[in-house]
Design goal:
It is a single chain. The protein is an alpha/beta fold. Helices cover about 40% and strands about 15% of the residues. It has seven helices and five strands.
């Protein structure tokens, strides 16, 4: 029987509980999942404070703490191409083969549909608490953000001094 393998594209800035729940849901439907870290070349900005390597750490530690078998997950990085007509080919060339694409982004959905892929919209889980933009705003404001991400991700962010970085890069000259 053919292995069912899908790809989930996201920036994961930071990896939060919504991402974790979506990954578990996808793994209930698919044999394997490729977690593609988008905008991999970006870091040290208010919108993208964490490096691709730090995001890999967050994802790996969160999945390990939840006992998600690593044999079912591929974590890859995906730099931006800035040319929508070429983007699907870029994803294909940088990824293991996949049959289905999970994305909440309408442009990503359209591009992969046009390329002949099965496109699925993952559930948006508690977007009030589980949205990277909101979590980063709470970090900047000194508000409680830790319950929106797995405990292992809190540890990574503290280890890399992520809050301090975010506050520094958000300052205007």
């Amino acid at each position: 029987m053919k292995t069912r393998r899908a790809i989930l594209l996201g920036r994961f800035q930071p990896f939060h509980n919504g991402h974790l729940k979506v990954i578990k849901k996808i793994l209930a439907e698919q044999d394997e999942l490729i977690v593609a870290i988008g905008s991999a070349q970006n870091s040290h900005t208010t919108e993208n404070p964490f490096t691709a390597g730090e995001r890999i750490m967050m994802i790996t530690k969160a999945l390990d703490s939840e006992k998600v078998p690593r044999s079912r997950i591929y974590t890859i990085t995906m730099p931006d191409v800035n040319n929508n007509a070429l983007w699907v080919a870029q994803v294909r060339s940088n990824s293991p083969p996949f049959d289905a694409v999970y994305s909440g982004n309408p442009l990503v959905q359209q591009l992969f549909k046009e390329a002949g892929y099965e496109v699925k919209i993952p559930p948006m889980i508690n977007r009030v608490d589980y949205a990277g933009t909101e979590i980063r705003k709470k970090m900047l404001a000194g508000e409680e953000w830790e319950t929106s991400v797995p405990a292992s991700v809190v540890k990574v962010i503290k280890e890399i001094k992520g809050i301090e970085r975010l506050k520094t890069v958000s300052q205007k000259e």
